[in-house]
Amino acid sequence: MTEKINSLDNIVLTNITSKNNSNDHVLLNLGLKINGKIRELFKQSVWEKAYNKFDNTFRITINVDLKSKNKVIYSVKFVRKAVFFWTRNPKIKHRIWIFIVKDDAPFYPESEEEAKSLLFDIDKVLELKFPTITDNVSTLYANVIVSWGKHNFSEPTKLVGKSNEEKIQIMPS
């Protein structure tokens, strides 16, 4: 039997700005998935065991460095959080359920699969001002570090990944 390890998959950086002017900004979309053992373990029976042992919050920290020619031009850190709680909602057949905090807003999933998707599938829009880009054409990529601490159901983990390279062309105004 092989032990499944955690991984960062499908790390994709995409320019979503149609035309770039030097007095504007660039919008980039960063997408990635956290897969492996943690995703398989993340189910209601595990949430209930963790809740009963007073381990009721699971926090994932995501650090992103946008780089051009190995120089960091933009850094951002954001957090995803899962909170296990006692529910009396008649629509949910379990007594312990979960809500996910994503971009400072709570989401109440209706299924385990929706909870996994909200927590482990990252889709983040990054806004980059042009003074941080010095060349007319820059090739950007993202270095991503994802980490979480020790819990009843997991050991502390740090995952590192790199996205594709995305060309950004700046048109003079």
Q: In whole angstroms, how far apart are the ends?
A: 60 Å
Q: Work out the radius of gyration.
A: 19 Å
Could you spell the SSE succession in H and E letters?
EEHHEEEEHEEEE
Oligomer: single chain
Low-confidence stretches: none
What is the total domain count? 1
How do the helices and strands line up, and which of them pair or pack?
Elements: E1 7-15, E2 25-35, H1 37-41, H2 44-52, E3 57-68, E4 71-86, E5 96-102, E6 105-107, H3 112-120, E7 121-129, E8 137-148, E9 157-162, E10 166-169
Antiparallel strand pairs: 1-2, 2-7, 3-4, 3-8, 4-5, 5-6, 8-9, 8-10
What does this structure look like?
- By secondary structure, the protein is mainly beta.
- The protein has one domain.
- Helices cover 13% and strands 51% of the residues.
- It contains three helices and ten strands.
- Strands 3, 4, 5, 6, 8, 9 and 10 form a seven-stranded antiparallel sheet that branches. The protein has a three-stranded antiparallel sheet with strand order 1-2-7.
- Strand 8 and strand 9 form a beta hairpin.
- The longest helix is centred in the N-terminal third of the chain and has 9 residues.
- The protein is elongated.
- It starts with 6 loop residues before the first strand and ends with a strand.
